[in-house]
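pasting for ref
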Amino acid sequence: MGSPQTLSEADRRLVAAWAADCAERVLGLFEAEAPKDDRPRAAIARTRAFSRGELNTAEEIRRRFMGGVDAGDVKAPAAAAAARAAGQAVAICHMGAHALGAAAYAAKAAGLAPGRPGAVEDELRWQLDHMTAEVRAALRALPPVGEDRSGPLGPGLLTSGQLGTIIRDLQAGLALPDQD
């Protein structure tokens, strides 16, 4: 039996489009620091292609670590978080829970951008407001952050500190009635 964090392939394709939207909203923070580095943009494009069914799941799982941005490739914390949002998004082909990782890193990146007080909360609100009922239902199927050890929502980076708080807030927002 697979991890409850995996989601079905159909659900992974649904949440991939939403996660790509989340990551793309902060892509400019990365590109402002590294304008010639197209790796995060390419990862978001692959995420979108996966969501449309244009890419094979098995092949994307094999490719998911290709073209990533290393921690030392950019200096600004907001740029690094934006790159990680794209990296989490492209990993959805493997496990649906990465959608929450993409959203959390995007919100973190927004919050790290200079001169944007309240940006994390604004980004969370946007993320919740811009998901379809189907995406909301798929994300509700994920276990609460920190309660399942078999994936990105288990013990580790996404469950601690600001990222963990953001994901908890997102999951709490998912529990509210649909806003459609």
